[in-house]
UniProtKB/TrEMBL annotation:
Keywords carried by this UniProt record: Glycosyltransferase, Transferase
Similarity annotation: Belongs to the glycosyltransferase group 1 family. Glycosyltransferase 4 subfamily.
Origin species: Nitrospira japonica
Keyword Transferase: yes
Source species, domain of life: Bacteria
This protein's record includes keyword Iron: no
EC number: 2.4.1.57
Coiled-coil zones: none
Protein name, entry field: Putative Phosphatidylinositol alpha-mannosyltransferase
Location of the Glycosyl transferase family domain: 177-341
A matching Pfam family: Glyco_transf_4
Cross-referenced Gene3D superfamilies: Glycogen Phosphorylase B
Length: 382
């Protein structure tokens, strides 16, 4: 099938990496595919390095008319059956551009967040009238929210996590243990969060939990991996925590597999917005027990007491309690880690995700043209 996938975001996180993962998988399955990406964005550079077909198109708000005309011309020449959009700006550009092409390509929005749809008229128009299908990268509870809370038609909403390369993300010892780099004993315990540094990822509660645990035991170090707009705020919180010597902010890393495999516990205390964070799925696939929150569809995969623990969002005390419980029981960590690996391997591989996505493509491509019912600095949103 001939597919266009657009992404107007200029950030780099789970959403953008998922776009590349899907594109690579679809190309391997024989689909003809073109990525429409923002010039100068990290994802554009990564896509080009991978040899994926890329068209650079400025999708900034002051370039909307030019972007619509350019995308319409590209679709007219290449005739994609599907345009798949991922963020707010490319959704609007795409929804208008497809209506200037006959026959009209179908348009799918991939929604990477679990927050309620905005009630304003433009968002309602986008999601109720302009998009043919909405796929949310979560589980059934996130899909139900879009139907019951936001009023979208059940037949036009699908939900499934991003999917993982389970052969790549498999349990094993790190090639380079992070403890050695940090000058820690081999028996020292490591608790980590790996995430783009955004407010809704809950870093402040991770730091609070670290401070509480550090006051009780001296054989645990906490690591924060990632970069982003909240870096300075996180640094200040670490300095004010009373446990700064036990919390390491490591910044961007290109050896994430080794970082993951060095951890004894993975925590990501999301406070809003997330569906199922990609890094959470990676930790589960690697056999690492996870502590997270009840946000979005996280409880669908972090099954409390089976693959990890979930706590209420914004509750640093509860987060500390569950992390400490895991740190105190190596056998429990092993059992929960093995359960998490089995869950991801059985239900959330990239192949299973692509099977579901292809089923959506086929359904839309075969359907008659019909009127669909109903949508920052980085270019995400909506």
């Amino acid at each position: 099938m001939n597919l266009f996938i657009s992404e107007s975001s200029t950030a780099v996180g789970g959403q953008e990496l998922a776009v590349l993962l899907h594109a690579e998988g679809l190309v391997k399955r024989g689909h003809r595919l073109r990525l429409i990406l923002e010039p100068g964005s990290p994802i554009a550079a990564m896509a080009q390095e991978k040899g994926l077909p890329v068209t650079l198109l400025s999708m900034r708000r002051n370039r909307y008319p030019q972007a619509i005309v350019a995308l319409r011309g590209l679709m007219y020449r290449e005739r994609p059956a599907i345009l798949q959009v991922n963020s707010s700006r490319d959704s609007w550009i795409g929804c208008i551009a497809v209506r200037l092409v006959k026959p009209r390509p179908k348009i799918i929005r991939i929604r990477h967040i679990s927050t309620p749809l905005n009630r304003n008229m433009t968002t309602q128009l986008l999601y109720r009238r302009l998009l043919d299908m909405v796929v949310v990268t979560g589980g059934e509870r996130t899909r139900r929210d879009l139907i019951e809370r936001d009023g979208l038609e059940p037949g036009r909403v699908a939900a499934f996590p991003i999917g993982l390369d389970v052969a790549h993300f498999r349990p094993g010892p790190p090639a380079r243990d992070l403890r050695r780099e940090l000058g820690l004993p081999a028996t020292h315990l490591l608790v980590g969060i790996i995430s783009y540094l955004r407010t809704y990822k809950g870093h402040e509660y991770f730091i609070e939990a670290a401070g509480r645990i550090a006051a009780q035991r001296d054989d645990v170090t906490f690591v924060i991996v990632g970069e982003g707009p909240e870096e300075q705020s996180i640094r200040r919180r670490i300095e004010q925590s009373g446990a700064a010597w036990r919390i390491r902010l490591l910044g961007f890393r290109d050896d994430l597999l080794d970082v993951f495999r060095s951890l004894d516990v993975f925590a990501i205390p999301s406070v809003e917005g997330d569906t199922i964070p990609q890094v959470l799925m990676q930790a589960l696939a690697l056999g690492i027990p996870v502590v997270s929150t009840t946000i979005g569809s996280i409880p669908d995969v972090v099954i409390d007491g089976q693959t990890g623990y979930v706590v209420p969002p914004r509750d640093g005390l509860a987060l500390a309690d569950r992390i400490a419980h895991l740190l105190g029981d190596a056998g429990l960590r092993s059992r929960l880690g093995a359960n998490g690996r089995a869950l991801v391997e059985g239900s959330y591989s990239i192949d299973k995700m692509l099977d579901r996505m292809e089923a959506v493509y086929q359904s839309l491509a075969q359907s008659l043209t019909r009127s669909p019912a109903g949508g920052s600095t980085s270019g995400r949103g909506g």
